[in-house]
Automatic annotation (TrEMBL), chain A:
Name the UniProt record assigns to this protein: ABC transporter permease
Main location, first listed in the record: membrane
Positions of transmembrane segments: 33-55, 83-111, 123-147, 177-197, 223-243, 274-297
GO cellular component term of the entry, any: plasma membrane
Keyword Transmembrane (UniProt): yes
Classification via Pfam families: BPD_transp_1
Keyword Acyltransferase attached: no
ABC transmembrane type-1 domain residues: 89-293
Gene Ontology BP annotations: transmembrane transport
Biological source species: Roseomonas acroporae
Top-level lineage group: Bacteria
Topology with respect to the bilayer: Multi-pass membrane protein
Keywords: Cell membrane, Membrane, Transmembrane, Transmembrane helix, Transport
Compartment(s) of residence: Cell membrane
TrEMBL record, chain B:
Family matches, as InterPro entries: MetI-like, MetI-like_sf
Subcellular location: Cell inner membrane; Cell membrane
Pfam families (UniProt xref): BPD_transp_1 (PF00528)
Keyword Membrane belongs to the record: yes
Stretch forming the signal peptide: none
Originating organism: Roseomonas acroporae
Entry protein name: ABC transporter permease
Automatic annotation (TrEMBL), chain C:
One Gene Ontology cellular component annotation held by this UniProt entry: ATP-binding cassette (ABC) transporter complex
UniProt organism field: Roseomonas acroporae
GO molecular function, one term: ATP binding
Pfam families: ABC_tran, TOBE_2
Presence of keyword Nucleotide-binding: yes
Domain called ABC transporter: residue spans: 4-234
Superkingdom per UniProt: Bacteria
Presence of keyword Lipoprotein: no
Keywords: ATP-binding, Nucleotide-binding, Transport
UniProt record, GO biological process: quaternary ammonium group transport
Name of the protein described by the UniProt record: ABC transporter ATP-binding protein
């Protein structure tokens, strides 16, 4: 840890204990002492374990072995090229992409309607959108199982209306997984887009409307470009969350709908191939971090570009 | 004409989305009051029998105990760490500050399942196999950044002159924290604490690999119950989960409300 | 009541010298103001006195005792902050009592002192309110009471009236004057408002670029500014460069192509370069009778005339290239229409010898 050099504090003159330089230096910087416990906790509980896992993924696979070996190999990663595992990876990306696309359309629509709602009525609607976020993912997924099951509400309605003869098999399909994922992650998209809406002048659509544009044209021409940063953030968050979600695919997906996380679970709990599982986790971690990193970098560059733009007020 | 159609289609889409968001939750609550022996929709008769049935399940009762203890333990450990770290970050004008902030907020961007697996393997390599300890470490790390964020947010709203005013009036470092900073950031601390409780209590992905047969959390107990049976007792226990979380969410809202009171 | 002395104070932030060898003194009970534009180092100087910033060089002395290395908590100084910094979670009485609580004053005695101090600032009836329930002026008084109740050796005020509207500001200035005179406390005040400084102070130190340009009584600083910066800051906006011409009596000054009266009492060698400063409101204008210069006056042409209600201001272009600004009261007599002089009109500008100062 390199926190001992943290911040110099003007006006903090602490009497220094003689003869114990390390302690004295730390005492002169209370900020370092305050930061130390949490940094140690995150380093020991997250950073080191992840580094260990990455190291393990480079060792040759031995069933049930967790100690590091001296031999380095890429064999665990090479197994991903096997069509079976590769198709799981492709399916994960596909399911996440469809989830993200649907969440984006619905999320922008909901955020737009929230933005157009007068403030005194907005509160309740925001709670309706955000409450699912706080409810246990197991309870929410179970709700979908009730709705989509062979004896579920959707089938009951379809049967009663005479639209189908026999119940449709909606559960344990890729479609069910996508529906479940959209439900779980839609609130994140709404939150991201709402953050962008908060910075838009409500008079803009009215101004465009007085110029004779229809509501959809107004939206596409004047609002959508301003929403881009919020949508980009929401897309990243939803995509990476969808890729790393386990509960929904495990409960709602069938045997043919396995994704990366369920494959990892299998390798760890059923086949005890911890080295291969470690490689799969590394792939999952790398793809989510790369995505988030790209958006963070993009946002930082936009901010810089905006700050150094000629004509903008210097700050 | 086209405008009206557009507007109507937009309203229908938004209405359907709200329905989509609420339907599964409403469904769970409705089914939990089912009086029949089998899952059916809509229920033909009403009763509380599935609540009794859920309560009779050893795995649910055990899971409830484990989840409650775990959530309280993790939140009580993570909150002081988060408060101290946020104070340290807030005060430091050091160049390395962004790196430390990134480290402390890292658990936010690492998927829960990755946190769980890497802890499982690293602790197994150290020959630590006690599930309660593994769970406590995993949950503490996972909820820590939420506390750091809420406390940092309330610190950022403080007028730095308040601390200096207290100093000129003769207050030392501890007295300034105790009498000025702490009361003013208390809503942020409370919000972080309650948010941590909710996240820990509802968590599946971190716990998935850290729990074992003897120490199982409630969400995991429900998941394994679902694998072999599909009766409304899961609806009953899920409704209870929903009630607990919404209760905590009200507390959270009240915490933020307090904050607004202070700002105004 | 204490004697405050700053001895060669400097503060450097990286390559930026915020305060540069500042030495000033305020005797017991004196009201000293640091006056200057934003960024001139006045607030940093004040914070060094309060103990919130450590100086890079120099010493702070209170009654001859070196307190430079003492923290703010140990100095026993009362400070009123620009943002007031009232504790929002405490009542008025709790805010005022805070310093006494930190000094472990017995509860009974503290309550009495808080009550008496709230009477001094005329807030006795609002003791149980929270700061957010008070008006801006009332909040000012609470901040003042909180700083004064600990019986500080000196009182420090950092632009406390900046956020108030003009009327309230004037009322608070009078109030502050009354209270500081009543308690006879040594005060250090920071402002960028020259009128405020003139009204309140016994001594004014005008700062610019981290240094003190001039230190003196309000009258000295106002009437005899020592540098062009001080002159400009104190409202002397007309400055003419010229030479001293020795003669009988007071002598004259040759500037802008005319021979002008020199201020009384200046004894300079013949031909010495001088700068002459004249306030706009001391310049008299009259219509020019004919072309050419007149004795002791400057000829020019009005290029701008702006109506301000009771006054009008005129900008006059001089044949030598510069401009003068004059402010004249608008006429009260019948038939006179303000402004009195029209753009394009040739005028003569003159002033009494005593109205100008050498800078």
């Amino acid at each position: 840890m390199t926190v001992a050099a943290a911040g110099s504090l003007p006006g903090e003159a602490v009497p220094v204990a003689k003869g114990r330089p390390a302690l004295a230096a730390a005492l002169r910087h209370p900020a370092a002492l305050l930061l130390l416990p949490a940094c140690v906790a995150v380093a020991a509980g997250l950073l080191l374990p992840i580094l260990y896992l990455l190291a393990l993924s480079l060792n040759p696979p031995v069933t049930g072995e967790v100690a590091l070996a001296g031999e380095l190999t890429l064999r665990n990663y090479a197994r991903l090229l096997d069509w079976f595992y590769f198709s799981v990876l492709l399916r994960t990306l596909w399911v996440s992409a469809v989830t993200t696309a649907i969440s984006t359309v619905l999320g922008v629509a909901v955020a737009h309607s929230l933005w157009r709602t007068p403030p005194h009525r907005r509160g309740l609607l925001v709670v309706v959108v955000l409450a699912p976020l706080l409810v246990s993912i197991v309870a929410r997924t179970f709700g979908w199982m009730l709705l989509l099951g062979d004896q579920g509400l959707v089938n009951a309605v379809l049967l009663r209306l005479g639209l189908v003869e026999a119940p449709l098999h909606l559960m344990f399909t890729q479609g069910a997984v996508i529906v479940g994922l959209v439900h779980v992650f839609l609130p994140f998209m709404v939150l991201s887009v709402l953050a962008a809406y908060d910075r838009i002048d409500p008079a803009i659509p009215e101004a465009a409307g007085t110029l004779g544009a229809g509501p959809f044209t107004v939206f596409r021409e004047t609002i959508l470009p301003l929403l881009n940063p919020g949508i980009a953030a929401g897309v990243t968050i939803v995509f990476s969350l969808a890729m790393s979600s386990y509960v929904t695919p495990a409960l709602m997906g069938g045997s043919g709908a396995g994704v990366l996380t369920t494959l990892i679970y299998q390798q760890l709990v059923v086949t005890y191939d911890w080295h291969f599982a470690a490689a799969l986790v590394a792939v999952l971690l790398a793809s989510t971090l790369l995505l988030l990193g790209a958006v963070l970098y993009h946002n930082a560059r936009r901010t810089r570009a905006w700050m150094t733009r000629p004509g903008s007020a210097p700050r | 004409m086209i405008r009206m159609l557009q507007r109507g289609a937009f309203r229908a889409l938004v209405g359907a989305t709200y329905l989509f968001l609420l339907a599964p939750l409403a469904c769970v609550v409705l089914v939990s009051f089912n009086g029949e022996a089998v899952q059916s929709f809509p229920p033909a008769s009403w009763s509380l029998r599935w609540y009794a049935h859920a309560w009779a399940q050893e795995s649910f009762r055990g899971g409830l105990l484990v989840s409650t203890l775990l959530a309280c333990g993790a939140a009580l450990i993570a909150t002081p760490l988060a408060v101290a770290a946020a104070l340290g970050l807030h005060r430091s004008r050091w160049r390395g500050r962004p790196a430390l902030e990134a480290l402390l907020l890292a658990p936010l961007v690492v998927p829960g399942i990755v946190i769980g697996i890497s802890l499982l393997i690293a602790l197994a390599a150290l020959d630590v196999r006690e599930a309660p300890l593994r769970l406590l470490i995993g949950h503490t790390v996972a909820i820590l950044p939420y506390g750091v964020r809420t406390v940092l947010a309330s610190l950022a709203r403080l007028d730095p002159a308040l601390d200096e005013a207290a100093e000129t009036l003769g207050a030392g470092g501890w007295a300034r924290f105790r009498h000025v900073t702490l009361p003013l950031i208390r809503p942020g601390i409370l919000a972080g604490l309650v948010f941590g409780l909710i996240l820990s209590f509802d968590d599946v992905s971190v716990s998935l690999f850290l729990a074992d047969a003897r120490t199982n959390t409630l969400p995991l107990a429900i998941m394994s119950y679902l694998e072999y049976s599909f009766d409304p007792s899961v609806a009953a226990i899920s409704s209870m989960l929903i009630a607990v979380t919404l209760g905590l969410a009200v507390l959270l809202e009240r915490g933020f409300g307090l904050k607004r009171l202070l700002a105004g | 009541m204490a004697h405050l002395q700053l001895d060669g104070i400097g503060r450097r932030y990286g390559h930026f010298q915020a305060v540069d060898s500042v030495s000033i003194e305020a005797g017991p009970g004196e009201f000293l103001t640091l006056l200057g534009p934003s960024g001139c180092g006045k607030t940093t100087t004040l914070r060094i006195v309060a103990g919130l910033v450590e100086p890079s060089t120099g010493r702070v002395l209170l009654d001859g005792r070196d307190v430079t290395r003492l923290g703010a908590a140990q100095r026993g100084i009362g400070m009123v902050f620009q943002s007031l910094a009232l504790f929002p979670h405490m009542t008025v009485a709790q805010n005022v009592a805070f310093g006494l609580r930190m000094r472990r004053v017995a509860a009974g005695e503290a309550a009495g002192r808080v009550r008496r101090m709230l009477e001094v600032v005329r807030l006795g009836h609002l003791a149980e309110r929270y700061p957010s329930q008070l008006s801006g002026g009332q909040q000012q008084r609470v901040a003042l009471a909180r700083a004064l109740v600990i019986e500080p050796s000196i009182l420090i005020l950092d632009e406390p009236f900046g956020a108030l509207d003009r009327k309230l500001r004037e009322a608070m200035q009078v109030e502050l004057r009354r209270i500081t005179r009543e308690l006879g406390i040594t005060s250090l005040f920071v402002t960028h408002d020259q009128e405020e400084a003139l009204l309140l102070s016994d001594l004014i130190a005008v700062m610019n670029g981290g240094r003190i340009e001039q230190c003196g009584t309000p009258r000295e600083v106002f009437e005899r500014p020592a540098t062009p910066f001080v002159a400009d800051f104190m409202g002397v906006t007309n400055i003419l460069e010229g030479r001293f011409v020795a003669g009988n009596e007071a002598g004259r000054i040759a500037a802008a192509g005319a021979l002008l009266p020199a201020p009384p009492g200046c004894a300079l060698p013949d031909g010495a370069p001088v700068r002459l400063g004249i306030r706009p409101e001391r310049i008299a204008l009259r219509p020019a009778a004919g072309p050419g210069p007149a004795e002791g006056a400057l000829a020019g042409e009005v290029v701008e005339a702006i109506y301000h209600g009771s006054n009008s201001s005129y900008r006059i272009a001089l044949p030598s290239g510069g401009t003068l600004t004059a402010v004249r009261p608008n006429g009260q007599e019948e038939g006179q229409e303000a402004p009195l002089f029209a753009v394009g009109q040739p005028v003569l500008a003159a002033w009494e010898a005593g109205a100008a100062t050498l800078i």
